[in-house]
Amino acid sequence: MRSDIQHAGQVNTAETTMLRIAMLGTGFIGRFYTQALHGKRAQDRVQIVFGRDARRAETFARQHGIPHSTTSIEQAVRAEDVDAVVIGLPNHMHEAAVNVAAAAGKAVLCTKPLGRNTDEALRMLKAVEEAGVFHAYLEDLVYTPKTLKSLQSVRDGAVGDVLWVRSRETHPGPHSDWFWNKEMSGGGAIIDMGCHCIEIARSFIGKDVRPVEVFCWADTHVHPIEAEDHAVGMVKYANGAIGQFEVSWAFRGGMDLRDEIAGTEGTIWLNHWLRTGIEMFTAGGQSGYVSEKAESENGWLFPVGDELTALGYVDMFADVLSAMEESRKPREDFYDGYVVNAIIDAAYRSVDSKRWETVRLPLWRGREDVDRVGALREYDANHLLIKEEKMPDGTTKVILRHKESGKIIQQTQ
Ligand SMILES: NC(=O)c1ccc[n+]([C@@H]2O[C@H](COP(=O)([O-])OP(=O)(O)OC[C@H]3O[C@@H](n4cnc5c(N)ncnc54)[C@H](O)[C@@H]3O)[C@@H](O)[C@H]2O)c1
Fold first, then answer.
1. Which of 66, 68, 298, 398 is deepest in the core (most CB within 10 A)?
2. What's the 294 CA to ligand 1 centre distance in angstroms?
3. 90 preceded by cis ω (within 30°)?
4. Whether this model's pTM surpasses 0.90
5. By alpha-carbon position, which residue is closest to atom 40 of ligand 1?
6. What are the residue ranges spanned by the domains of the chain?
7. CA of residue 4 to ligand 1 center, whole Å
8. For residues 370-377, average pLDDT
9. At residue 93, what are phi and psi to the nearest 5 degrees?
């Protein structure tokens, strides 16, 4: 077991050894996180788990081979043999848990959304930075194998300049009471799922490019709640790129996770959940769990081979815990969570005002000097190329714009 823990949650060692974790929360995400951490021959271990109900916490500990359980967040965080704290608690509890971890000098890994709003997220960022502890924002969906591959392709220039990223997360609604309570969750489908979509788009467009404005529509179509169960928003970036998010707690048919990246030189379409490569029909033989938020256990089903990996949890913890060992920043930290919260706040303001709303970022660490995306293509000394197309009769048609007069002409070759 690791004993060379340095101050401020940072581990100074060249070799990879076991990291010991306090898991706060025994719910839906606590289970996924613990399974990902303990999966296969993984070396890191959850050492203690916090749950508000003692019996449930004990059962969770027994099921996952965790040595200790507690009903005290303080006790879980302050345990001597804990290197890092993972927060898998309802949104309204994130800030208090972060403060306990920061005060104890422990590394802290917080699930999404970081805060219920920008102010909360900024306070959390300041708390961990002032305490000097390692921090990570657990945004699993930027770590799915398909997303990692696509991000690399985009970075290598496969799609040219990224112009538009469309990210969609829809399902019939979340699984616990507190999500539906606007005060506890901070909102509805936008804060719950828009946070994923926004960070996916930021990752493709460039996290150093400032999000400038948001336009968002939202409504409550189906569920008797104060918050929105449906929304579509557009986030405009300083380089002219657009991130579009589509979220719903009213979608029927399971969980729909899709992303599209459109660039000047190419396109990527990702389907993470409803068309994963396994399509199975059962007239009634199948029973039990199929995949997250599947609505049916028979008929046509779309099971997922390895849910933990497909949702990014495995690669996320590999990056975050390695970053902690190597004293480097993980792909996502609290600063990213704060930027996402600022975009979401602008989206909520836009829903009310029905106008584009500025993204208010009291702290911005990215670039200001970005070039506009998109490329003008020169055709000849006098013309710019608008479009070139091979026609059904075998000819090639070019559509050109005269540089000075602006006149648009076509030529067939
Ligand atoms: N893909 C993802 O990254 C993902 C997926 C699901 C949930 N989440 C996030 O994880 C967090 C928890 O969500 P969940 O789905 O696990 O919720 P959940 O309701 O399944 O579990 C919440 C846990 O917190 C405890 N809890 C609830 N209310 C409490 C209270 N008032 N006091 C003390 N403990 C309390 C519960 O006992 C339970 O252990 C949320 O922030 C949510 O947004 C992230």
1. 66
2. 20
3. no
4. yes
5. 90
6. 7-111, 142-313+327-358, 377-412
7. 31
8. 91
9. -105, -5
